[in-house]
Amino acid sequence: MTASGAAAGRVPRARFPGFDRVGVVPAALAALALALPLVTFKPNRIAAGRGVAFWAALPPAAAAAGGLLLLLIGLAACLRVAPASRLGLALVALAALAGLVGLAPGAVALPGMPYARVSFAAGFWTLLLAFGIMAADGSARLALRPGPRVLLLGAVLLALAGLFASGWWNGLSILKEYAAHRDGFWAEAVTHGGLAFGSLFAALLVGLPLGVACARMPRLRGAALPALNVIQTIPSIAMYGLMMVPLGLLAGAVPFLGALGIRGIGAAPAGLALFLYALLPVVANTAVGLDGVPRDAVEAARGMGMGGARRLRAVELPLAAPVILTGVRIVLVQNIGLVTVAALIGGGGFGTFVFQGTSQAAIDLVLLGAVPTVVLAFTAAVLLDAAAEAAGRTPA
């Protein structure tokens, strides 16, 4: 046989995909999580609980199959696989984790214990963190365009909605808290969204024109931005307290305002504080965005006979939109979090459950307020990041 014939008949050996150093973190977390308690079992809402290990918290077959699947996907994170495969495996692991933890109440709680509570424990949160990191890593390596990124977010949110609607998690303590506070939950959700988005809208009405003026007048910029920066340094609790005094005095002096809901406690001081916090990112990003508009584009618009107002509306603001939207994202994510603290002054929102749960030592009631806040902030960040990136893309 000739050398060429031998080479042609040689079977190529499969190549090892290689080692991924970034993947060591989720792999180590996943391995650690399987040795930690998956859930906490309590005989009632306020009693002390005990952790139940992954292998004891599930039916034997589910524990064996699910544990093996999660361990294998965790090990796969250490390999240099395609970004799409990395993202897909992470999503499979997260879906498996959601399904497995729904089995825990039936395996841990006895039928004769109607008040028993089964809550997420360290193992669940560690697995969620591990595969969340893996999913984020895969998504970042894919460098998804804005459209597919939003579609992926929508698919995840729909899957979560389907999980809750199916009743699969109804045995878990957080869903029992939701069932006990169903009407109040949605009322507080409307309040939370109203404060976060309403303060953003008010900040845009004031901040956009002020930002344009700062870009045009350096002296105004030198005075306005430092003043707004001072506002950002005031802690949220102190800011809410500062707003309570003038609004309380104003409501006492003008009873009509009190009838409209403007008083020293409640949504009014919270909304005003959030509005003031939102001004700096909107004003600063508007000014910086306009500063970054290419002079050639402005001169070309001027040469076409565009006046100042039309040039601003048709050329400068569209070109500055990515930077402005980045400021809007900062404001919205910031305000969604700060609304939680507003519950301390009667502002309502998801913080109501956080502080009620803290006072009652009911961690699942705390989660009932914290989890939707995180989901809302994450969704807003992804959507506005995608909008900013889309606005910055120039047509081919």
Keywords:
396 residues, mainly alpha, MetI-like fold, 2 domains, 3-stranded antiparallel β-sheet, 73% helix, flat, transport, membrane, MetI-like
Q: Numbering strands along the chain, what is their spatial order in the largest sheet? A: 2-1-3
**CATH homologous superfamily descriptor of the largest domain:** MetI-like
Unreliable residue stretches = none
Q: Please state roughly what percent of the residues sit in beta strands, choosing from under 5%, 5-15%, 15-25%, 25-35%, 35-45% or over 45%.
A: under 5%
Tell me, rounded to a whole number, the average pLDDT. 86
The ordered string of helix (H) and strand (E) elements is HHEEHHHEHHHHHHHHHHHH
Major sheet characteristics: 3 strands, antiparallel
Number of strands: 3
Q: Which percent bin holds the helix content?
A: over 70%
CATH topology of the largest domain: MetI-like fold
Family: Belongs to the binding-protein-dependent transport system permease family.
Transmembrane segments: 22-41, 53-75, 87-109, 115-138, 150-169, 189-216, 237-262, 338-355, 362-384
Subcellular location: Cell membrane
Domain ABC transmembrane type-1: 189-384
Structure notes:
It comes from Lichenibacterium minor. The chain contains 17 helices and three strands. Helix 2 runs antiparallel to helix 3 and helix 8 crosses helix 17. The chain folds into two domains: 157 residues, no CATH class; 211 residues, MetI-like fold, CATH 1.10.3720.10. A three-stranded antiparallel β-sheet has the order 2-1-3. The longest helix has 35 residues. With 396 residues, the protein is mostly helical. 73% of the residues lie in helices and 4% in strands.
